[in-house]
Structures are given as structure tokens and as C-alpha cells.
Design a protein that fits this description.
By secondary structure, this protein is an alpha/beta fold. It is built from 16 helices and 18 strands. It has helices spanning about 5-15, 30-40, 55-65, 95-100, 105-120, 150-165, 200, 205-215, 240-250, 265, 270-280, 295-310, 315-330, 340-355, 435-445, 475-485; strands spanning about 20, 40-45, 70-75, 125, 175, 190-195, 220, 225, 255-260, 285-290, 360, 370-375, 400-405, 420-425, 450-455, 465-470, 500-505, 510-515. The strands form five sheets. An eight-stranded mixed beta sheet has the order 11-16-15-14-12-13-17-18, covered by helices on one side. Residues about 485-515 have low confidence and may be disordered.
Length: about 525
């Protein structure tokens, strides 16, 4: 065996070491385990890998038995974006609710609780918190994942979440650098463009990332965001953004991880393989790849392209060594700092969700047999099909019925007059004309219908009677229902969080026991 072949194998290992792909199923395929045993950098877990936290720990332990320092990553933001609680909805309120409460200590405690959850599952890297400032109200992907619209507020809560989370021994990651909140395109679907100059960004979108860096965050996720006044390349493949600004100006010394390279903003424009080479060339250390297209052949193509780029001088070998070395540092699983505290975490989550509520008008008490009209605009790729809304926590004693209406499935007007009570549930109704029209139609027949806005739309006096929860998960839904029955500890506060209720679809007219929507 020649020295050249040994060198080639070393380069191949380094190239594999910067890859962070996913796979489908609750058990890793044999080929994936073999790849980890060789040199694969790590794995990004998705909802398709999760049955429950205990099963995930068995899975992550099995991967770690192949190689102890394998990176195990997940998107566990709390709120809308959850993988470990995808079947029922996150046990924690998300960033929008925390930002509304604006209690730094509370955000730090939620960050710590998320850290304990991920540690219990055997995660070493969590892609949270979302440090994006929600500047554009039409934003299709960030929304309630953001702490808010004010850069200073987002910055202090980003830092607080990082501190609490990393104190539990799991690396945090601020995303989506340099800021996805002032965009109207989802990078899963196309190229998002930020129309600001660098000086403007330094005083707005970049502030939370600087706060995360100052708080010692272990990693930064580079988004596929194009800022034409700064660079002609998206940030995830831009040396200007990753080296000159993030490392040079902001002083970041941790791991730069890309957003998933199979997203359209990169894959459609450059191709997955070329996008991977561009990212490492630009200064990225860890390449996130989705699960849908991950095969041994795809990983071979990417790692071979990285090796070839070193051979031609396009990527300096030291650049690849640095990237793989940094990435490997995120694979260390420390002993848990503190054990899971389910009852305390539930209490903190419910406290945060209750404090985030906004109400207008006189709210009628919740009545048995109520009708819930939930407006469903569809879930984006980041959120997935996680259940949401009051029905997820409604006790069966209420005998509630839910109808789901969409842009194409109108409100079932015939059900409204006889219902003892009506809740009309929306999320970001300000973004959808049809949703606002549906609310108006319900109110034209039932002016006493209570509006429950669970996104960032908020409520005003003109919406009364109404509540805004700034989150749509179980904790937020419990807060809504508890307020309607007269305070915490009522019909929902001490009940099980995911109780079967009757659900009826306006699309098919059927009803069935259902604990998720």
C-alpha cells in the first residue's frame, strides 16, 4: 500500500468527516452504521427517526457504539419546530411566546429544559435557537420561531437560551445567519434575498448572532440567504460572510454548519455536490444534508468532489483538516449535568405560555359540545406535520368537535347556529386573505365566536372576544383553554395533554377519535 493511497484515504476520511446527513426510520441502516464506523461526521435526526425520547436514546447509543465521537444533531427549537415531540407537539412554548413575556430568566430556564431533553435523547448538537429578527410580517418560514421584531429583544433572548441550553452539556446553534427574518421566500423552496446593506444589518439582523457569539455559542448555522449588497453568493457558500464577517469581525471561533444543502436555494442553483464544495471552500465546517436524498452514492459523490477539490488546489488541505477537526468537537457527549425534570419542565412551560397570552373583550366560559373551526394554511418544511391547536389538549368531557377549513374547504355554515359555543382558530391570519374572510364569515353568523390567534398576528380590540397565544403547541393550547375556563388548574391544567377528541373535517365530512390534527 503506497503512501499516496494512504494520503488519499486520509483525505477521504476528512471529507466524510464534514458530512451530516440524515436517514429514514427509527433504526439506522447497516450501510449508515458502517459509514459512521469509518469516518462519517455525524447524523441529523428528523421526525421520521423518532418514536419517543427513549427510543431515540437507544438509537443514538447504537450510533455511538460505532464511533464514540459521532455528531448527533437535531432541530429541537421548542414551539413550532420539534423533532423529539413531533407526534404530539413540543412540550415547550416557542420563541415568540418567550419574546412576548420578555423574561430573560424564564427564557434561560426553557433553554435549560430543552437542553436536558436533548441530552436525555443522546443529542450532542441542537440547531436552536432561532436568532432571526422577524422584520417582514409576510415571512413564510420564521414567524413564531422568532423571539420578536426588535433586534435588541431577539439578541438578549438568543443569548439567554444559549446559556441555559449549553449549561446542560449540549451544543447550541444560532440560526439562520445572517438573518432569515427579513425575507418573503422560504429557502426550502427558492432563493431568499435580503435587501439591506452590511451597515444596516450590523444594527439589526446581525445583533442576535453577535449576542450568541458573545454568550459562547458552539455553532452558527449559515442560511442560504443572498444579500446582494454584501456578496453575490448566498451566505452558506460565501467566504465574505463566513470568514471575513463571522470570524473576522464577530470573532466566532466555533463550528460553522450549513443549513441543509438539498434545499432549493442551493441545490437548484448549484447542485448538491457543487454546493457542498462551495460551502467548505467558503469556510463551512459541517454540511447538513437532508434525509430524503441521502444514499451511499450521494455521500460518495460529495466526499469525492471534496477530495478532488483539494487535489486541484481549489480547497486547501488545511481548510479541510480544520473543518473536520472542528466538526468532530461537536461529537462529544458529556454526562448529563442534571436529570430530566418532567414535572418542573411542564410547570415552567405552562407558566411561560400563560404569561404570553393576550386577551381582548369579555371571554365567555368554555362550554361542553363546543365547535372548533380551525383554519389550516399548511405547514412549512421546517415545521412539518406537527399537530397544533386547542383540540390537541381538549378533555374528552367537553365533547368538542373540530372542523378544519382551508383555502379550498369552506366553513361549514350549517354547523354554526346550533353549536353551544364556537372557537375560530387561526395562525398568522394576517398573511391569508381567505383566513380573515373565514373569521368574518363565522362571526357574521356567530358574533359570540371566540377568535384564537396562535401565530404572530396578535389581536386588537376590534377582534374581541379574542385571545392570542403566540404559539400553537400543547403548552400554548393549555394556556388558551385554561383562560377560557377561568384560570390555571381548571379543565385542562391538570389533565393529560393529548386526550382523544372528536374531529370532523370540512374536506370529507368524517369524524373520528383523534389526538392529533
Amino acid at each position: 500500500m503506497t503512501d499516496m493511497s494512504a494520503a488519499a484515504r486520509t483525505l477521504q476520511s476528512l471529507a466524510d468527516g464534514v458530512l451530516l446527513p440524515g436517514f429514514h426510520g427509527s433504526v439506522a441502516p447497516d450501510w449508515f452504521r458502517r459509514r459512521i464506523s469509518d469516518s462519517l461526521g455525524g447524523v441529523c435526526l428528523f421526525a421520521t427517526n423518532v418514536i419517543d425520547v427513549e427510543q431515540v436514546r437507544v438509537l443514538t447509543d447504537s450510533l455511538r457504539s460505532e464511533r464514540p465521537d459521532v455528531v448527533v444533531a437535531v432541530d429541537e427549537e421548542g414551539g413550532a419546530v420539534t423533532r423529539l415531540d413531533a407526534a404530539e407537539g413540543s412540550r415547550f412554548p416557542g420563541a415568540a411566546a418567550l419574546g412576548r413575556v420578555d423574561d430573560i430568566g424564564l427564557t434561560e430556564r426553557i433553554g435549560a429544559a430543552v437542553g436536558r431533553l436533548t441530552a436525555a435523547a443522546g443529542i450532542t448538537l441542537n440547531f436552536a435557537p432561532c436568532a432571526d429578527v422577524l422584520t417582514d410580517p409576510a415571512n413564510p418560514v420564521i414567524r413564531i420561531r422568532s423571539f420578536g421584531t426588535a433586534p435588541e429583544l431577539v439578541a438578549r433572548h438568543t443569548a439567554a437560551f444559549v446559556r441555559g441550553h449549553q449549561a446542560q452539556g449540549v451544543a447550541a446553534c444560532v440560526k439562520h445567519y445572517p438573518g432569515h427574518g427579513n425575507t418573503d421566500v422560504d429557502t426550502h423552496l427558492g432563493q431568499a434575498v435580503v435587501h439591506q446593506n452590511l451597515e444596516s444589518l450590523r444594527h439589526s439582523a446581525l445583533l442576535p448572532f453577535a449576542a450568541g457569539v458573545a454568550a459562547g455559542v458552539a455553532s452558527v448555522m449559515a442560511g442560504h440567504l443572498l444579500v446582494p449588497e454584501v456578496d453575490a453568493l448566498p451566505a452558506s457558500v460565501s467566504g465574505r460572510w463566513l470568514v471575513d464577517i463571522l470570524r473576522g469581525e464577530m470573532g466566532f471561533t466555533g463550528v460553522v454548519v450549513t443549513d441543509a444543502l438539498d434545499m432549493a436555494a442551493i441545490a437548484r442553483r448549484y447542485g448538491l455536490v457543487e454546493g457542498a464544495v462551495m460551502a467548505v471552500e467558503a469556510g463551512a465546517d459541517l454540511l447538513c444534508l437532508g434525509a430524503a436524498d441521502t444514499t451511499p452514492e450521494v455521500l460518495d459523490h460529495i466526499s469525492s468532489a471534496l477530495v478532488a477539490a483539494v487535489g486541484t488546489g481549489r480547497i486547501d488541505e488545511e481548510r479541510l483538516v480544520r473543518a473536520a477537526t472542528r466538526a468532530a468537537g461537536l461529537g462529544v457527549l458529556p454526562p448529563p449535568v442534571s436529570p430530566a425534570r418532567l414535572a418542573e419542565d411542564r410547570r415552567i412551560a405552562d407558566q411561560a405560555a400563560r404569561r404570553a397570552l393576550a386577551t381582548v373583550g369579555s371571554l365567555p366560559p368554555l362550554m361542553p359540545g363546543l365547535l372548533v373551526v380551525r383554519c389550516e394554511a399548511g405547514r412549512n418544511f421546517a415545521v412539518g406535520s406537527v399537530p397544533w391547536g386547542p383540540m390537541a389538549v381538549m378533555p374528552p368531557s367537553f365533547g368538542a368537535i373540530e372542523v378544519v377549513v382551508t383555502h379550498d374547504a369552506p366553513v361549514p355554515l350549517e354547523l354554526l347556529p346550533a353549536a353551544p359555543q364556537v372557537l375560530v382558530v387561526t395562525s398568522d391570519r394576517h398573511r391569508h386573505d381567505w383566513m380573515r374572510a373565514a373569521v368574518a364569515l363565522v362571526r357574521s353568523i356567530r358574533p359570540d365566536a371566540v377568535l384564537v390567534e396562535m401565530g404572530t398576528g396578535g389581536v386588537s380590540d376590534a377582534d374581541a372576544p379574542a385571545l392570542a397565544s403566540y404559539g400553537s403547541g400543547p403548552a400554548n393550547a393549555r394556556a388558551v383553554l385554561d383562560r377560557l375556563v377561568g384560570g390555571p388548574g381548571g379543565a385542562v391544567g391538570s389533565a393529560g395533554a393529548h386526550t382523544p377528541v372528536q374531529r370532523q373535517s370540512a374536506m370529507d365530512g368524517s369524524s373520528s377519535p383523534c389526538s392529533r390534527v
